[in-house]
Design brief:
Belongs to the thioesterase family. InterPro entries: AB_hydrolase_fold (IPR029058), TEII (IPR012223), Thioesterase (IPR001031). Residues 22-238 form the Thioesterase domain. By secondary structure, the protein is an alpha/beta fold. It has one domain: 3-Layer(aba) Sandwich (Rossmann fold), CATH 3.40.50.1820. It has 9 helices and 7 strands; from the N terminus they run βαβαβαβαααβαβααβ. The chain has helices at residues 38-42, 68-78, 94-108, 139-149, 154-158, 160-178, 205-209, 230-233, 235-250; strands spanning 20-25, 46-50, 87-92, 117-120, 192-197, 219-224, 259-263. A 7-stranded parallel beta sheet has the order 2-1-3-4-5-6-7, with helices on both faces. Helix 1 links the parallel strand 1 and strand 2. Helix 2 (68-78) packs across helix 3. The longest helix has 19 residues, at 160-178.
């Protein structure tokens, strides 16, 4: 991938020829490195383009953002130059709401409409929070809560120097996710697919099913083996599902397309 300091979108260094470009938004504390194993696995069908938010990786010295609206404003500025071919959006956990609101904003502004949206590990936007916000906790309590959730490398949480460097970004991401409320606007004019781990403690399959309310087109729900980070444990099933959904998105999907639920288990 091309690593340009300050760049919001990480594109491959050379033209891939893939017919579809997929922009990916990571979980709280995550970044482009989370999607690194995906790139070769999804080619030649899908060109993977992770979104890098301020405060991490190549942008570690930049102030992290704490409001979804601020991210969406920047997405509408930087993404259009990358929309020279059909595209889709993917988000995991916090990234789901960023992908969702980006899709809505791009369409509303006439900048582009995605073939489809794939959300993962995040309850539907209209559902209430399960627990009090973590970003308001004292440092020790916050770090302990993040450790229980998984997803953040243990070496960061255990090494005081790394933790001091990364903690503001991690807390900002949780604030962004926990203060989010759906922005005004119409349902998406494209299909939505929701992915979830069967044992996810943060988002149950029925909470992911609520994403059907976000689209005027087709909706599907895929339930995988695993927990909140099932993506790491089921790469084969995950990549097959991504390819299948991108192919489905490329077809004409009528408004009356039925809800499809698939449980991917051993």
């Amino acid at each position: 991938m091309t690593h340009v300091p300050g760049a919001w979108v990480q594109r491959p260094p050379e033209e891939t020829g893939a017919p579809v470009r997929m922009f990916c938004f990571a979980h709280a504390g995550g970044g482009r490195s989370f999607f690194a194993p995906w790139r070769a696995a999804l080619l030649p069908d899908i060109e993977l383009c992770p979104v890098v938010l301020p405060g991490r990786e190549t942008r570690i010295k930049e102030r992290p953002l704490t409001r979804v609206e601020d991210v969406i404003d920047r997405m509408c500025e930087v993404l259009p130059e990358h929309l020279d071919r059909p595209f889709a959006l993917f988000g995991h956990s916090m990234g789901s709401v960023l992908a969702y609101e980006t899709a809505r904003a791009l369409h509303a502004a006439g900048l582009g409409t995605p073939l489809g949206l794939i959300v993962s590990g995040r309850r539907a936007p209209h559902l209430p929070a399960r627990r009090p916000p973590l970003h308001l906790l004292a440092e020790d309590e916050f770090v302990a809560a993040v450790a229980r959730l998984g997803g953040t490398p243990q070496n960061i949480l255990r090494e005081p120097g790394l933790l001091r460097l990364f903690l503001p970004t991690l807390r900002a991401d949780f604030e962004l996710n926990e203060t989010y409320r759906p922005l005004p606007g119409a349902a998406l004019p494209c299909p939505v697919s929701a992915f979830v781990g069967a044992a996810d403690p943060e988002a149950a399959p029925e909470e992911l099913a609520g994403w059907r309310e976000s689209t005027a087109h087709g909706f599907s729900l895929r339930v995988f083996r695993g927990d909140h980070f099932y993506l790491k444990g089921t790469p084969g099933e995950l990549f097959a599902a991504l390819r299948a959904d991108i192919r489905r998105f490329g077809a004409t999907v009528p408004v009356s397309h039925p809800v499809h639920i698939e449980r991917i288990t051993p």
